[in-house]
């Protein structure tokens, strides 16, 4: 992957993403983060590309790398949680920094079958549950 030092060196995580998520792993292109909502197994991929707001802002090699990392993240959630469905979305209406949501959905989750946004209040992880969830996901991440 041809990563420009000017774009990756200037990358900073949007404050709202920093506030709403917990670090999980650093993938080749993206920061992989856990959404602080225990209602759903919910991961967020944030490409380390400064000023990227849309998928079309990425160079072709970065778009391909992002697709590979979405695939890897989706497979991780499927392996660990065995969801009924995976939701993958890049909305960015409130947080303009490009980020991709990958959410494991279940027929019994609080928002099913509707989208997760605005259905029920986020349920932050307890410190113990956060440690357990992060460890479980990190253990399942392929090398």
Automatic annotation (TrEMBL):
HIT domain span: 43-112
Superkingdom assignment: Bacteria
InterPro entries the UniProt entry points to: HIT-like, HIT-like_sf, HIT_Hint
Pfam families membership: HIT
Protein name per UniProt: HIT domain-containing protein
Organism: Luteimonas salinilitoris
């Amino acid at each position: 992957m041809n990563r420009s030092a000017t774009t990756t060196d200037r990358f900073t995580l949007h404050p709202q993403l920093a506030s709403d998520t917990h670090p999980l792993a650093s993938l080749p292109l993206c920061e992989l983060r856990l959404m602080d909502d225990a209602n759903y197994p919910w991961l967020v991929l944030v490409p380390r590309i400064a000023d990227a707001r849309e998928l079309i802002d990425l160079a072709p090699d970065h778009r391909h790398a992002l697709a590979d990392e979405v695939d890897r993240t989706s497979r991780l959630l499927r392996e660990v949680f065995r969801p009924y469905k995976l939701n993958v979305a890049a909305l960015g209406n409130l947080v303009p920094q490009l980020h991709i949501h990958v959410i494991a959905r279940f027929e019994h989750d609080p928002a099913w079958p509707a989208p997760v946004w605005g259905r029920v209040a986020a349920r932050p992880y307890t410190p113990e549950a956060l440690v357990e969830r992060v460890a479980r996901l990190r253990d399942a991440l392929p090398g």
